Every structure is written in structure tokens, then in C-alpha cells.
Amino acid sequence: MGERNQGVKPLSAQHAESGFTLLEILLVIVIVAVTAAMVVPSISLVGMGSVQDEAKRLRLTMRLAMEESQLSGQPLRWLATEHTWSFEVFSLDDGKWSAFEEPPLSTYQLPQGVRIMSVQQAGDFALDMVVEREGADDAPIVGMVLLLPDGTTSQSNVRLEGEGDGDDEVRQLQIRPGPAGIRLKALEP
To answer: What are the C-alpha distances in Å from 16 to residues 24, 25, 28?
Structure first.
């Protein structure tokens, strides 16, 4: 008689090997759907920075550059083209400007859809400097900001705008001397 029961498995063992339950499958589908809902928007925004985000990035980087100038005792200047910006440091030894290569003060490429429209000097300060860039691209310089070790800056207004697809967002970065001298302002297009 013992031989006859060898091929038959108990009911509980058959149920354990039958596969996934409907509840388990639904739970996996819900987890995948929630994950996809979080990932898809972030994937579609890759490479598309907003003007506000880029203006905030520039404000924070400019503050860091002001501190770097004060701590190192060397003047820095910020150069802007329509689609990039970079910092240069002035060497007191040879009297030349050279590119600042260390992040986050190295050359920065603005994301597609954002551009620097203008850099205007504010107040009575006029910044007339010849810019000689070795090995740099041929993009024209929109403007520059000078950052001195004593905390003085060239008073400037940097205008960033969105371009294309009806993006008419405009931000102005106001740069003035002092600890709270860099402000961000929304402008009408």
C-alpha cells in the first residue's frame, strides 16, 4: 500500500508549487507602476534646465567664487558667452588670467533652452578689460564680472532667458558688493 501513495502529493504541497497568487501579481504591478510614475518625469527633464534653476546655480557659484577670491587673495573674473560661463584667476606672478579648472568654478555649459542674454554694468563702475582667451571657443563674450579679494565686485546685472517652445521665463542676477550682494529677481519677458 505504501507504493500507491508515492505519486500523490499532499494538498498543501501542491498549493505551494502552483505559482504566484493574484494578490502577489497585483502587488508587483502596483510597485512597477509607482516606480515608473516617479522615474518617467525625471527622465523627460534630463538636459532641460529651467531658467530659474540655472539662475540659482549661477547665484550659488558666484557666491562661492567671491569666497574663493577672498580666501586665496587672488582676483577672479567670470566670463559669459550665450551658452557657457567660466571663471578665470589672475596670477599675481605673471600678470595673466588663466582658466579656473577646478569644479564647480570650471567652465559650465548651460542646458538646452537657457541662455545668457546680457551682462550689464550697474552704477558708476565701468569695466573695460581686454579679454584674451587662449584655445577658447570663438563664441563672443556677452560680459564679465570682476571679483576682488577684498570682497569688491563689479556691480552687474546678468540676464538669463529661456529660448524656444514658448519658454519666456526671465531671471536677473544682481551682483553687488557685500555678503548679501547677489540677488535673484524674476523679470517680465
So the answer is: 14, 16, 19
